[in-house]
């Protein structure tokens, strides 16, 4: 069974500091993908970053990077130089194949990040 | 750029009433999904449609039905609403080829069942 675990219900970070949001996963599939989404208080889901299980390098997208440790089954999100606008819920999700040409995402329960001025 | 459009955005129902949440995407995606989001639970998959003409159950399908009307539209129906179905519902679509699994979400529909 696929499982995503986010152990930090809430996190605080000082503005301009870096923060790491934890995500561990469990799967027996050799091929999978890991995603991070941001949900601000307005409610929309915003895609941040993606890591494929066969990708050799850690994914980066601007101030976001994914610390992918395959042997430990972890995919932590690192946000550098935090900004007030980073205050939001963050969800880790894992892709699995659910049939020919179809995929599902399983989500963790989320981490609420609060950036302190 | 419309992307994924959900209607209505807000709805209040009484227990036992029925309603349909509508979803349409203009990105020519094959796969569409309905999730519900509850506090502390993350997003849970209700139903999905891998392609036009097919639908499958997700993690929490009880109390819901879906229809993939065409490639663009995927509706979610509550036949007899219950307070446990009070939630925020998200429709999403995905493109298999470019980034398998990445979901493009609608803005969400907040449903309250009294």
Properties at a glance:
heterodimer; A: 117 residues; mainly beta; six-stranded mixed beta sheet; four-stranded antiparallel beta sheet; 12 strands; 56% strand; B: 114 residues; 11 strands; globular
Concise summary:
The complex is a heterodimer of chains A (117) and B (114). Chain A is mostly beta strands and 117 residues long.
What would you report as the Rg of chain B, rounded to the nearest angstrom? 13 Å
Query: What is the tally of beta strands of chain A?
Result: 12
| Cα distance spanning the termini of chain A | 41 Å
Largest sheet, strands/sense/barrel of chain A: 6 strands, mixed
Strand content of chain B: over 45%
Q: Based on helices, strands and strand pairing, what is the structural class of chain A?
A: mainly beta
Rg of chain A, rounded, reads: 14 Å
β content of chain A, as a range? over 45%
Please give the largest β-sheet of chain B: 7 strands, mixed
Number of helical runs of chain B? 0
Task: Briefly note the structural class of the backbone of chain B.
Answer: mainly beta
Report helical residue fraction of chain A.
under 10%
Number of DSSP strands of chain B?
11
The largest inter-chain interface, given as chain pair and residues per side, is: A-B, 26 and 29 residues
Order of helices and strands of chain B: EEEEEEEEEEE
């Amino acid at each position: 069974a696929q499982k995503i675990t986010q152990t930090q219900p809430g996190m605080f970070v000082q503005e301009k500091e870096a923060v790491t949001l934890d995500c561990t996963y469990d799967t027996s599939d050799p091929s999978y993908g890991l995603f991070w989404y941001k949900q601000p208080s307005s409610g929309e889901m915003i895609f941040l970053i993606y890591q494929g299980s066969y990708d050799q390098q850690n994914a980066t997208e601007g101030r976001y990077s994914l610390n992918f440790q395959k042997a430990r089954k972890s995919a932590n999100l690192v946000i550098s130089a935090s900004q007030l606008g980073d205050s939001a819920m963050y969800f880790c999700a894992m892709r699995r194949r659910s049939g020919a040409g179809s995929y599902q995402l399983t989500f963790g329960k989320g981490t609420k990040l609060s950036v302190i001025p | 750029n419309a992307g994924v459009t959900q209607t209505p955005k807000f709805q209040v129902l009484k227990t036992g009433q029925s309603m349909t949440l509508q979803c349409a995407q203009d990105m020519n995606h094959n796969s569409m999904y309905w999730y519900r989001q509850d506090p502390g639970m993350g997003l849970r998959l209700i139903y999905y449609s891998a392609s036009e003409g097919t639908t499958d159950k997700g993690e929490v399908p009880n109390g819901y039905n879906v229809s993939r009307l065409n490639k663009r539209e995927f509706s979610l129906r509550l036949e007899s609403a219950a307070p446990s179905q009070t939630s925020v519902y998200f429709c999403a679509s995905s493109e298999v080829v470019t980034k398998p699994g990445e979901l493009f979400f609608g803005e969400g529909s907040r449903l309250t069942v009294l």
